[in-house]
Amino acid sequence: MPVKIRLQRHGKKGKPFYWIIAADVRAKRDGKYLEKLGIYNPNTNPATIELDVNGAVKWLQNGAQPTDTARAILSYKGALLKNHLTGGVRKGAITEEQAEEKFQAWLDEKEGKVSNKKESLSKEQEAAKQKALEAEKEVNAKREAAAKEAVDAATAEEAAATDAEATTEDASTEENKEA
């Protein structure tokens, strides 16, 4: 029975969430599977991937063929590298300890890259928040200035109206005095 390592879609419309599975080629996309190897959530930044590397290597050694996306995920998490190193151990090119050492060195380097990316993303988000806050403060200052001008204009109009009333009252009292 030919086996594929592929993604099985879960989640709601517009928010996909995938299981990484080993399944018979003839099975439906979201149908019966042989083993669940991990999860893949592309909605987060960077994407969340949890993978049973040893289980994936076991299936690869038994002849399972990953799909293109599954191959990229397996490569990202190091399952393909571990499969390659295990093949070298079987052929006698390297020892088990050397293979494990190379794999751990690769994992440490990969973890450093991922943590650097997460840090840069968080710094970018903080910078964007600061920029938005500054823009909002500027808009609020403009609104306050406009409101103050409107209040000053209204006060000036009231003062002018009161002066006009006082002037008309003075003029009418003067006319009354003359008459």
Report on this structure.
With 179 residues, this protein is an alpha+beta fold. It has a domain at 3-94: S16 Ribosomal Protein, Chain: A (2-Layer Sandwich). 64% of the residues lie in helices and 18% in strands. It has four helices and five strands, in the order E-E-E-E-H-E-H-H-H. The chain has a five-stranded mixed beta sheet with strand order 4-3-2-1-5. Strand 1 and strand 2 (15-24) form a beta hairpin. Helix 1 (53-61) packs across helix 3 (79-91) and helix 3 runs antiparallel to helix 4. The longest helix has 83 residues, at 96-178. The chain is rod-shaped. The chain starts with a strand and ends with a helix. The model has no long low-confidence stretch (mean pLDDT 89).
Largest sheet: 5 strands, mixed
- Based on CA atoms alone, the radius of gyration comes out at 36 Å
Point out poorly predicted stretches: none
In which range does the helix fraction lie?
55-70%
The count of β-strands is 5
Looking at CATH, the homologous superfamily of the domain at 3-94 is Ribosomal protein S16
Order of adjacent strands in the largest pleated sheet: 4-3-2-1-5
CATH class call of the domain at 3-94: Alpha Beta
% residues in beta strands? 15-25%
Query: In angstroms, what separates the terminal alpha carbons?
Result: 121 Å
Estimate the mean pLDDT confidence: 89
Query: Would you tell me the structural class of the helices and strands?
Result: alpha+beta
- How many separate helices? 4
